[in-house]
Amino acid sequence: MDISTQYLGLDLKNPLVPSASPMMKSLDSVRKLEDAGAAAIIMHSLFEEEISHEHEEVMLLMEQQELSHGEGSHFIPTYEDYANGLDAYLEQIQRLKSTLEIPVIASLNGISLDGWIDNGRKLEEAGADALELNVFFIATDSNQSGAEVEDRYTSLLRELRENVSIPICMKLSSHFSSIPHLVKQLEINGAAGVSLFNCFYQPDISTDTLQVIPTPPSSSETNMLLRMRWIAILYSQVGLSLGVTGGVKNGNDALKFLLAGADVVQLCTILFEKGPEYLAQILTELKVKMEQLGFDSISELKGSISHNAVKDRQAFERAQYFRHLTVRGR
């Protein structure tokens, strides 16, 4: 049985890829993931906002030291002496590349064009095999059109594509009026793949403190099926890689996404709940199910139940089914 696949131009031994999470900060955890069969790893996100905040704090500390030490200022550490989040991230890439035999995909979350470009270059120089852009923009201005929002994504991609040579994946949210159009434009502008869909903290209101508080995202079956729908619709319309992230708990879930057309299935929450070793069980379940269904390879099954492959294409398009809404017996 051949369970190999390709993602972002990278040859992978199977379609299971642990997604960006704090687990990637631990070399021991990442080794366990590789031992369990992970085909690649996506590192935890590097946040430009955090780096900028650290820079401001270091500069303030140095200014205070200079004012306090007077004649002893030549003993004060320079800016380069202070390690920051970026340094630690780059060092982790280098450690992972020297330790693992599987590809390492860096994840970047930026807030400025210069930040995206500068940090993207540094991640490539550190040895990352590919780059996942964790992009999200809230359009709060009623004068800004959907087309203008999409243009922010494609413009960022074009600029970054001109400055880095490694494959770039855009991790997208589901909040677009035409997902196929956006993904096609991203492909035209140089994206090697997209990952569907990003999960974000959502604002909630505390009725105790009357404050807005962040609420962590949850991986529900409904969200998983939303991803499945769009993977199936995109499969025959674009040529770039399709990754799916969120909600996969077992080999059967992974198989569904592959049948819909995904190139890789990313895992996160279940690995936190069960441990990195659990990836091996998901992989075994996937292979057993493939054998039961008579599939000899990932390439044979991939996209076989996509939007373009099924007789009833509307099955992926309907939002409501009359027979499920009608009360029985009436």
Low-confidence stretches: 53-67, 72-83
Report the CATH C-level class. Answer: Alpha Beta
Q: For the residues shown, what is the average pLDDT?
A: 85
**Strand tally, please?**
12
| Named CATH topology | TIM Barrel
Which architecture name does CATH use?
A: Alpha-Beta Barrel
Radius of gyration: 22 Å
CATH homology superfamily name:
Aldolase class I
What is the overall shape?
globular
Order of strands across the widest beta sheet?
Answer: 3-12-11-8-7-6-5-4
Can you walk through the features of this model?
The protein is α/β, with parallel strands linked by helices and 330 residues long. It has a single domain (5-325), classed as Aldolase class I (TIM Barrel), CATH 3.20.20.70. It is built from twelve helices and twelve strands. It has helices at 27-36, 48-69, 85-99, 113-126, 146-161, 179-188, 221-234, 251-260, 269-274, 278-293, 298-301, 322-325, and strands spanning 5-7, 10-12, 16-18, 41-47, 104-109, 130-134, 168-172, 193-196, 202-206, 211-215, 241-245, 264-267. The strands form three sheets. Strands 3-12-11-8-7-6-5-4 form an eight-stranded parallel beta sheet. Helix 3 (85-99) runs parallel beside helix 4. The longest helix has 22 residues, at 48-69. The chain is globular, with a radius of gyration of 22 Å. Residues 53-67 and 72-83 have low confidence and may be disordered.
SSE topology:
Elements: E1 5-7, E2 10-12, E3 16-18, H1 27-36, E4 41-47, H2 48-69, H3 85-99, E5 104-109, H4 113-126, E6 130-134, H5 146-161, E7 168-172, H6 179-188, E8 193-196, E9 202-206, E10 211-215, H7 221-234, E11 241-245, H8 251-260, E12 264-267, H9 269-274, H10 278-293, H11 298-301, H12 322-325
